[in-house]
Amino acid sequence: MADARRFLIWGSSGHGRVLADVITREGGSIDVLVDNDANATACVPNSLLLHGETGLRRWLESGPLLVPDSASVAIGGARGADRRSILGLLRRLGFDLPPIIHERACVSGASAVGRGSHVLANAVVAAGARIGDAVIVNNGAVVDHECELEDGVHVCPGATLCGLVFVEQDAMIGAGATVLPRTRIGRGAVIGSAANVTRDVPPGAVVVGNPARILRRTQ
User: Per-residue pLDDT tens for 48-98?
Assistant: First the structure.
């Protein structure tokens, strides 16, 4: 992430605080916050807080003197579809959407990290890994060699994806979970915290336990 960027962050809660910390460490600033919750408060002092797409569009149409050049979406959890949708809106509005990578993350030069994705403190993205857009690789998570994460995936704190794991769009890997090599996680699946995934997980499945088993299906 380039220094001295001025950011708009969509999401003024916990993940917004995390992103703000990473950005300001790199010399950037958080000028504008947007949140869909009308009762939200600014998670970054002295930042302008707008409410939803309507508030953002009205502000832009008012002709503000200084519009941030960059933006990111601070919505965690199993809400990959929301992250992707808002990222698309911000792209259409002309914002740059750089990946945000913590200074203490280890990201191989032989990997790729997509637009609007976040790689947080002590996370690892190993050689040959491919990270899509609007992906979160959270604190201490490991994405090992040649893994592929489609858009909207969230790898929660302390989770480990061993080599050659493929994670489809909008899936979430819970905190402390382990996914063994050459496993495929289906679209929108949720891997429970501390689960040990030893085989492919179908789309929309919620799996828990060691070894992981299907608890229910959402699709």
Answer: 999 999 999 999 999 887 889 999 999 999 999 999 999 999 999 999 999
How many Cα neighbours within 13 Å face the side chain of 81?
3
Q: How far is the CA of 89 from the CAs of 10, 122, 154, in angstroms?
A: 11, 30, 20
Side chain identity at residue 157, one-letter code? P
pTM above 0.85, yes or no: yes
Please, what's the largest Cα pairwise distance for the chain?
56
Q: Which two tokens stand for residue 179?
A: 């996914």
pLDDT, one tens digit per residue, over 90-147 is 999 999 999 999 999 999 999 999 999 999 999 999 999 999 999 999 999 999 999 9
CA distance 176 to 173: 8
Q: Are 2 and 70 in contact (CB under 8 A)?
A: no
SS (H, E, C) 54-114: HHHHHHHHCCCCCCCCEEEECCCCCCHHHHHHHHHHHHHCCCECCCEECCCCEECCCCEEC
User: Any idea where the domains of the chain sit in the sequence?
Assistant: 6-74, 100-209
Fold for domain 100-209? Answer: UDP N-Acetylglucosamine Acyltransferase; domain 1 (2.160.10)
Cα 37 to Cα 10: distance, rounded to the nearest angstrom? 11
CB 191 within 8 A of CB 209: no
